[in-house]
Amino acid sequence: MPTAFVLIKGEEGAEDKIRSNLDGKDTVSEIQSTIGHYDFVAKITSPDVERLDELIGEIHGNDKVRSTKVLRLNEAVEAA
């Protein structure tokens, strides 16, 4: 299953709103607060890569999100 970790930096004071928006998505399996440049790291899983990219786009498009960094896991390819 395609998985990505998204590091999220939000607008100052909007952290609770961003977190509650992410908590409402069934594809966000985990959200952790961080110390440093980013406020959160969210683990996102999806049945396919296209949907994963849509979800990442939704996070980028949030007007309270200032910057993100996406770490998408490489799916292992099984040998035949």
Tell me about this structure.
Strand 2 and strand 3 form a beta hairpin. The protein contains two helices and four strands. Helices cover 28% and strands 35% of the residues. The mean pLDDT is 89. The two termini are 19 Å apart. It has 80 residues and is of the alpha+beta class. A four-stranded antiparallel β-sheet has the order 2-3-1-4, covered by helices on one side.
List the helices and strands and how they pair.
Blueprint: E1 3-10, H1 15-23, E2 28-33, E3 40-45, H2 49-61, E4 65-72
Antiparallel strand pairs: 1-3, 1-4, 2-3
Give me a quick take on this structure.
The chain is of the alpha+beta class and 80 residues long.
The fraction of residues in strands falls at: 35-45%
Q: Give the low-pLDDT segments.
A: none
Radius of gyration of CA atoms, rounded to a whole number:
13 Å
The sequence of SSEs as H and E is EHEEHE
Helix and strand composition category: alpha+beta
Mean pLDDT: 89
Specify the overall morphology. Answer: globular
Largest sheet entry: 4 strands, antiparallel
Number of strands: 4
Fraction of residues in H or I helices: 25-40%
Q: Going across the major beta sheet, what is the strand order?
A: 2-3-1-4
SS field, number of helical segments: 2
- N-end to C-end Cα span: 19 Å
Key structural traits:
35% strand; 4-stranded antiparallel beta sheet; single chain; 80 residues; alpha+beta
